[in-house]
Amino acid sequence: MNISEDFSEWRDCADATYLVGLALGLYSEQDNASIVTSVSNRIGNLAITVLGEMVRIGNLEFNEELGAYRWNKAYRFKERIGDLIE
């Protein structure tokens, strides 16, 4: 799994939540995780929080019109490190 590849195209909120949870190891591809991403619960809420933080630090873009996320190809960790340390 490579999260930048998984988010190379716009992903709706359900797909994005599922992919982040998968990347974090909250569940596996064999688990039926659709219930986690379709209702409010701790695991789904954690994945949504992570998505929001990824947008905040700039490695994901969020398109409000589409309600979708994708990898920000312009994101460079070394360029942002000063902004990220609080």
Quick rundown:
The protein has 5 helices and 3 strands. With 86 residues, the protein is mainly alpha-helical.
Structural overview:
- With 86 residues, the protein is mostly helical.
- The chain has one domain.
- It has helices at 3-6, 13-24, 34-38, 42-57, 77-84; strands at 11-12, 60-63, 68-71.
- A 3-stranded antiparallel beta sheet has the order 1-3-2.
Reading the helices and strands in chain order gives HEHHHEEH
Weakly predicted, low-confidence segments: none
Q: What gyration radius follows from the Cα positions, in whole Å?
A: 13 Å
> Quick one: how many beta strands?
3
- Helical fraction equals 40-55%
Number of helices: 5
Major sheet, described briefly? 3 strands, antiparallel
Range of strand content:
5-15%
In spatial order, strands of the major sheet run 1-3-2
Give the averaged pLDDT, no decimals.
84
Q: What gap, in angstroms, lies between the N and C termini?
A: 29 Å
Number of domains: 1
What would you call the shape?
A: globular
The structure class reads: mainly alpha
Q: What keyword list fits this structure?
A:
single chain; 86 residues; mainly alpha; three-stranded antiparallel beta sheet
Walk me through the topology:
Layout lengths: L2 H4 L4 E2 H12 L9 H5 L3 H16 L2 E4 L4 E4 L5 H8 L2
Antiparallel strand pairs: 1-3, 2-3
Helix pairs in contact: 2-4
